[in-house]
Give the backbone structure.
Amino acid sequence: MPLFNLPICIFNRSREDPREYFKLLPANDYEYDARAALNLFYLMAGANKKASLLGPPPFRFLAHVARGRVALYFGCPPEYVGVVRGAFAGAYPRVSLAPASSPVAGWKGGALTEFYALGGKFLPFRKLQGPPSVLVAVLTSLGAGRDAPVEAILDVCFAPLPEGKMRERAEVEARRYVGVQSSDVWGEIKDALLSPAAGPSGRGTTADVYRVQRQVKVLNPSRAMAADEMRSRFLPPERAYEVTVRVAARGGLKGAAEKHVMDAASAVAAMSYLNRLERSGRHGHGDRVALGGFGEKAVMTGSELANLVVVPGPDSPLWAALERDVARTAAPPGMLLGED
């Protein structure tokens, strides 16, 4: 189906969430693998190509905390179910997808906040490397493992962006970031900054060398390296996404929901690297939780988004509180990126 021919009216005109939802249920013998968490976004490439760039985000990950228990959900429009199921089967073969209802349908009241990217669209966030510590910190802040009357949600809505166009825009933004008008002398500037004693290598013209020398006088290595990370951020096999991250809570004693949201916001900040997710002063409309639409937005790669969209394993502090598929005992190995 062509990219821009998908019906967007289901999102724009309906006041109901049109997604189908699945509860993510890891088997008792599930083992967490960071490569699988990253691989999920690679395997969702088919869904990425189908998704419309208009309207609210098609994909949604929900972590629901109630009375200390944690349930994970994934939602998508009906036309993407096959691709999404296939992606999860490849990345998480020991995780079942059980049809379910949205845990936030009709959500009203309580405390709510969303996050914006302080450094804009092109500076990177922290990539997932090792245990899912960011998700653990966020859900612990929202009450996971504690039998409390506050109900809370981590809500991550996302839509794919065209990687080629993002690479082009990142190249322009990186040059602007360091004040370079042309990419021809980029390597010369970076080399000179890394080895200032050696100076420009002289591979370009005399005019280029003088331009390099002028840039070196006003730049510093850390700014040039940040720009270089912008340029490489969307290279294959990375996928690019427009993302809304929100946390919400309701119930409990007066001020308890607000406290849960504030603590979770501090935990989300652990994704900081050259960019940072900051709590927005605009808390959005109450129906954003029920409908799962875009609010404040940030651009993330799959490796960055995996900090939040991930299934923790038995070595995680969340495991005891996590709803699981206790009946499953065997499954074939998963397809991991780079395996034959």
The radius of gyration is 22 Å.
